[in-house]
Design brief:
CATH superfamily of the largest domain: P-loop containing nucleotide triphosphate hydrolases
Strand content: 35-45%
Order of helices and strands: EEEHEEEEHHHEHEHEEHHEEEEEEE
Keywords: ATP-binding, Cell membrane, Ion transport, Iron, Iron transport, Membrane, Nucleotide-binding, Transport
Protein name: Iron(III) ABC transporter, ATP-binding protein
CATH topology of the largest domain: Rossmann fold
Structural class: alpha+beta
Oligomer: single chain
Largest sheet: 6 strands, mixed
GO molecular function, one term: ATP binding
InterPro entries: AAA+_ATPase, ABC_SmlMolc_Importer, ABC_transporter-like_ATP-bd, ABC_transpr_FbpC, P-loop_NTPase
Number of domains: 2
Length: 333
């Protein structure tokens, strides 16, 4: 097995505006080819973190290394244009008066004409815009505009790609296909990428790792599945919509097949897909049921507790059932 190469190392970044802390103790490390999602609500600091790594805003304190090349350490700072990274803005920031090819080649003015055209052609081919180089941005669809922005960001073959809400302007009907296409592109060329979103669905569909942010801090970082299945706090559990959060003292012991991961925790997380019918289980009543395509989502009443569970069983509203929670309940604070 080949040894992984550390691509990005960020240590204790701090950013303040008018003495108000916006980013605090922001640290992460990525290997080459990793795709990380900075996930959180508006105002949590995720876009600020992206701009800090790009050198677009003033960083009060911290350290940034890209493939062991120092970009930022306290007073020392490499300017944005020399950081060897690409940045895709939320609105793509394409120049409306330039063609697709001219947009892509904007940063290649240091090359001679032949080399510049070769780079542009390669970038157009990379994002499947080979035949659209002479069009203007307003003549492109949203997905094509995004591809143009990607090509422009990658034409200089950056070591790190940063993307600010790259899928927010894409029609939902084409978003999934475009995300899959983009992910394959990054993986094929082993490009390290960080993108920002408030959508956990985008995080699951595109990222290898997810960092959940709140009030300028990373609350939890890890593989996307691990963060969803094992949230380390009530905030992460709620933001990820990871399941039912219940005061530990209110959970009927008969409902749990297994002891909780932390019986001393103030709250327990019960996954919606962890419930199963059980002849001698805990009585429950179905108070609502929604068909979700491949499964049903049921709202049930267990004593005075309102819970949600998912399975492939259709229940009539008002039906009395007996259930048991088959997974390990996760203790969270």
């Amino acid at each position: 097995m080949s040894q992984e190469t550390t691509a990005l190392n960020v240590e204790q970044l701090e950013v303040s505006f008018d003495e108000k802390p916006i980013l605090q103790d922001f640290s992460l490390s990525l290997n080459q080819g990793d795709i990380l999602c900075l996930l959180g609500p508006s105002g949590c600091g995720k876009t600020t973190a992206l701009k800090a790594m790009a050198g677009l805003i003033n960083v009060k304190h911290g350290k940034i290394e890209l493939f062991e090349h120092l970009l930022k350490h306290n007073a020392y700072e490499v300017p944005p244009e020399k950081r060897d990274l690409g940045f895709i803005f939320q609105d793509y920031a394409l120049f409306p008066h330039m063609t697709v090819a001219e947009n892509i080649g904007f940063s290649l003015r240091h090359l001679n004409r032949e080399a510049k055209e070769a780079h542009i052609h390669q970038a157009l081919t990379l994002v499947s815009l080979d035949n659209l180089g002479k069009r203007y941005p307003h003549e492109l669809s949203g997905g094509q505009q995004q591809r143009c922005a990607v090509a422009r960001a990658m034409v200089n073959r950056p070591k790190l790609l940063l993307m600010d809400e790259p899928f927010s302007n894409i029609d939902s009907q084409v978003k999934n296909g475009l995300m899959s296409e983009m992910r394959h592109l990054l993986k094929r060329h082993n490009i390290t990428c960080i993108f920002v979103t408030h959508s956990k669905q985008e995080a699951f569909s595109f990222a290898d790792k997810t960092a959940v942010m709140n009030q300028g801090r990373i609350q939890q970082i890890g593989k996307s599945q691990e963060v969803f299945e094992n949230p380390n706090s009530e905030y992460v559990a709620r933001f990820m919509e990871a399941g039912n959060l219940i005061d530990t003292a209110l959970v009927p012991q008969k409902l749990l097949m297994l002891p909780p991961s932390n019986a001393n925790a103030s709250r327990l997380l019960l996954k919606e897909n962890g419930f199963a019918p059980c002849p001698d289980g805990t009585p429950a009543k179905v108070i609502d049921s929604l068909y979700m395509g491949h499964r049903y989502r049921h709202e049930i009443l267990v004593g005075d507790l309102t819970l949600f569970m998912e399975n492939q069983q259709a229940y009539e509203v008002g039906k009395d059932i007996q259930i048991q929670y088959r997974y390990e309940a996760i203790g969270v604070e």
